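Example 9 (inverse folding). The structure is encoded as follows.
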Protein backbone atom coordinates (compact mmCIF):
# COMPACT_ATOMS: atom_id res chain seq x y z
CA UNK A 1 0.00 0.00 0.00
CA UNK A 2 1.12 3.51 -0.66
CA UNK A 3 0.98 6.24 1.96
CA UNK A 4 -2.39 7.30 0.55
CA UNK A 5 -3.77 3.79 1.00
CA UNK A 6 -3.69 2.85 -2.66
CA UNK A 7 -2.42 -0.56 -3.65
CA UNK A 8 0.60 -0.93 -5.89
CA UNK A 9 0.54 -4.04 -8.03
CA UNK A 10 -1.53 -5.93 -10.54
CA UNK A 11 -4.45 -7.73 -8.87
CA UNK A 12 -3.92 -10.96 -10.81
CA UNK A 13 -0.28 -11.28 -9.67
CA UNK A 14 -0.23 -9.84 -6.15
CA UNK A 15 0.67 -12.02 -3.17
CA UNK A 16 -1.50 -12.56 -0.10
CA UNK A 17 1.07 -10.96 2.21
CA UNK A 18 1.03 -7.76 0.16
CA UNK A 19 -2.73 -7.60 0.60
CA UNK A 20 -2.39 -8.16 4.34
CA UNK A 21 0.26 -5.41 4.56
CA UNK A 22 2.74 -7.94 5.96
CA UNK A 23 6.50 -7.88 5.39
CA UNK A 24 7.52 -8.85 1.88
CA UNK A 25 10.66 -10.57 0.66
CA UNK A 26 11.82 -12.76 -2.22
CA UNK A 27 9.02 -15.25 -1.53
CA UNK A 28 6.56 -12.52 -2.52
CA UNK A 29 8.13 -12.41 -5.97
CA UNK A 30 8.09 -16.20 -6.10
CA UNK A 31 4.32 -16.15 -5.55
CA UNK A 32 3.95 -13.79 -8.51
CA UNK A 33 6.26 -16.04 -10.54
CA UNK A 34 3.99 -18.94 -9.59
CA UNK A 35 1.04 -17.04 -11.04
CA UNK A 36 3.00 -16.50 -14.26
CA UNK A 37 4.03 -20.17 -14.42
CA UNK A 38 0.42 -21.22 -13.80
CA UNK A 39 -0.69 -18.89 -16.59
CA UNK A 40 1.93 -20.29 -18.97
CA UNK A 41 0.80 -23.85 -18.29
CA UNK A 42 -2.98 -23.30 -18.05
CA UNK A 43 -3.45 -20.47 -20.52
CA UNK A 44 -4.98 -18.19 -17.90
CA UNK A 45 -4.30 -16.87 -14.43
CA UNK A 46 -5.72 -18.92 -11.55
CA UNK A 47 -7.90 -16.17 -10.13
CA UNK A 48 -10.33 -14.22 -12.26
CA UNK A 49 -13.43 -12.24 -11.33
CA UNK A 50 -15.50 -9.32 -12.51
CA UNK A 51 -13.80 -6.84 -10.18
CA UNK A 52 -10.26 -6.29 -8.98
CA UNK A 53 -11.48 -6.55 -5.39
CA UNK A 54 -12.94 -10.01 -6.06
CA UNK A 55 -9.64 -11.16 -7.58
CA UNK A 56 -7.80 -9.90 -4.50
CA UNK A 57 -10.15 -11.79 -2.20
CA UNK A 58 -9.47 -14.98 -4.15
CA UNK A 59 -5.72 -14.52 -3.56
CA UNK A 60 -6.48 -14.36 0.15
CA UNK A 61 -9.15 -17.02 0.50
CA UNK A 62 -9.51 -19.34 -2.49
CA UNK A 63 -7.61 -22.49 -3.34
CA UNK A 64 -5.72 -22.40 -6.60
CA UNK A 65 -7.63 -24.34 -9.27
CA UNK A 66 -5.91 -27.55 -10.26
CA UNK A 67 -3.82 -27.32 -13.43
CA UNK A 68 -5.51 -30.55 -14.50
CA UNK A 69 -8.66 -28.48 -15.02
CA UNK A 70 -6.89 -27.05 -18.06
CA UNK A 71 -4.32 -29.72 -18.91
CA UNK A 72 -4.85 -33.50 -18.76
CA UNK A 73 -1.08 -33.99 -18.88
CA UNK A 74 -0.33 -32.04 -15.67
CA UNK A 75 -1.62 -33.85 -12.60
CA UNK A 76 -1.51 -32.20 -9.19
CA UNK A 77 1.19 -34.65 -8.10
CA UNK A 78 3.28 -34.23 -11.25
CA UNK A 79 6.58 -32.35 -10.97
CA UNK A 80 5.16 -29.14 -12.46
CA UNK A 81 1.92 -29.48 -10.52
CA UNK A 82 3.91 -29.72 -7.28
CA UNK A 83 6.14 -26.77 -8.21
CA UNK A 84 3.18 -24.51 -8.97
CA UNK A 85 1.40 -25.69 -5.82
CA UNK A 86 4.40 -24.79 -3.66
CA UNK A 87 4.90 -21.42 -5.34
CA UNK A 88 1.27 -20.45 -4.74
CA UNK A 89 1.00 -21.23 -1.06
CA UNK A 90 -0.83 -18.48 0.85
CA UNK A 91 1.72 -18.56 3.67
CA UNK A 92 5.19 -17.43 2.51
CA UNK A 93 6.80 -19.90 4.93
CA UNK A 94 5.27 -22.74 2.88
CA UNK A 95 6.78 -21.51 -0.40
CA UNK A 96 10.25 -21.87 -1.82
CA UNK A 97 12.77 -19.64 -0.06
CA UNK A 98 14.82 -18.74 -3.11
CA UNK A 99 14.56 -18.58 -6.88
CA UNK A 100 17.51 -20.98 -7.03
CA UNK A 101 15.42 -23.66 -5.33
CA UNK A 102 12.68 -23.12 -7.90
CA UNK A 103 15.16 -23.26 -10.77
CA UNK A 104 16.62 -26.54 -9.51
CA UNK A 105 13.17 -28.12 -9.21
CA UNK A 106 12.21 -26.91 -12.70
CA UNK A 107 15.45 -28.31 -14.13
CA UNK A 108 14.77 -31.64 -12.41
CA UNK A 109 11.19 -31.69 -13.74
CA UNK A 110 12.42 -30.97 -17.26
CA UNK A 111 15.03 -33.71 -16.99
CA UNK A 112 12.36 -36.18 -15.88
CA UNK A 113 10.23 -35.21 -18.87
CA UNK A 114 13.17 -35.68 -21.24
CA UNK A 115 13.95 -39.11 -19.79
CA UNK A 116 10.33 -40.23 -20.20
CA UNK A 117 10.27 -38.92 -23.76
CA UNK A 118 13.49 -40.73 -24.68
CA UNK A 119 12.39 -44.01 -23.09
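The amino acid assigned to each position is listed next.
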Amino acid sequence: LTKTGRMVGTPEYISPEQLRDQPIDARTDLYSFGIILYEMLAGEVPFTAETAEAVLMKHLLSDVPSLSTYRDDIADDSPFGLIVHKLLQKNPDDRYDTATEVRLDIEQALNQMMLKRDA
